[in-house]
Amino acid sequence: MKRTVAGAIVLAAAVAMTATACSSNSSSDKSSGGKSTLSTDGKGKTITVWLQSDAQKGWPAVVDQATQRFEAATGAKVSVQWQQWSNYTTKLDSTFAGTSGVPDVVELGNTQTASYIAGGAFTDLTSAKSQFENSSSWLQGLAESGTSSDGKLMAIPYYAGSRVVIYRKDLWDKAGVTTPPTSIAELNADLDKVKAANAGDSHFSAFYMPGKYWYAAMSFVYGAGGKIADKSGGKWSGQLSSAQAQQGLTQWQTLATKYSTGGATKDESDQDAIMAQGHVAAIAGNGWEVGTVTDAKTGNPKLASVLSTFPMPGTAAGQYTPSFLGGSDLAVPAKAPHAGLGAQWVKYFTDNTSQTALAKFAIPNTTSLLSVYEKQAQANQSTGEAAKNTWFVPNTPNWASVESNNILQNMLESIATGKSSVAAAAATADGQVASTLNAAG
């Protein structure tokens, strides 16, 4: 559920050239013009579905029931091939550039999707949108990631993860803090108490906030009314120097410098393991990270009874800081041999039946089922609330280069280490973001 782009998601030129030409491939379940209509004509056919191993480990029964309903309705068979996020985009690039072995359905992280949409790698599902249940109430961050710059539906929301505050209730209680804060000012006041109560521990972090944790930092930017970038007149401009964005960055800076110890030059990849060591009272993470912190093999199961969660509070009392909505989308490749059947399988896998079952494990793709998700556990209640107020990265294929060039990470590290002021670091980042997003493809 936590998605990052490990390297630049740059499609080979061949992908852009060959994928857009796929409408010449004939298929009994694909209409003309590269647009897919949902098909039930599957007798004697087998579709191939690429899903990440998250589902294999976490909710295989959800995959199985959708497949069984699909097979009964279409007469087709389904071959689910489990994938790993590591080097996944390299595999997609080489597959899409070829002429064989193209699957009928692929899963992608929602920050990856825009690059492939721009490269013409997916089938247009716009005409079939109304046939996907809850398409009018999809989570905004997922829906935007699967929509092209000209408004076409190119990928279907699958599931999401949303960040909350995961905290040691025992440490907070001992410091005299017995209820979650309702504003950032109250959060800081509570952290002052927690920090003071543990002043004898030189390794202690009242709130561990790594210096390169851009998902968390940008949540404060958006919560203060700012944004990373904006497009006007066909050109992108960085917006991190705005008063609102700098207010958010300053709020984040307080967590990263006043209440966090030892992580100024790090990202969040090992924060669960660090919290498990016992010197951290709070982190910002996906709700499922509670399980990672307390894992019997890699974490500290003794913390299971004392960890709790709450949504990150906002600037004003009663408001929440918006959370980055990470997750996955499902797309039908433009050169899929059975595009219509692939779209039909996606329909079953993302309908109310499947998403209700999935809500036991992850945030479903629609706001209409958040209450079902929230009933499962206390951590789900917090992440479900957080998922109602989310933000997403600028929806442009060049965004991947912003991530791979570590523009935001470098800005935040310079702030966390004291090498640059918030204003100077933001100004540098604005120039880099603009030049990257405006670069010719």
TrEMBL record:
Keywords: Signal, Transport. Pfam families: SBP_bac_1 (PF01547). The keyword Transmembrane helix does not apply. Residues 1-21 form the signal peptide. The keyword Transmembrane does not apply. PROSITE patterns: PROKAR_LIPOPROTEIN. InterPro entries: SBP (IPR006059). Belongs to the bacterial solute-binding protein 1 family. PANTHER family: MALTOSE-BINDING PERIPLASMIC PROTEIN (PTHR30061), MALTOSE_MALTODEXTRIN-BINDING PERIPLASMIC PROTEIN (PTHR30061:SF50). This is Extracellular solute-binding protein.
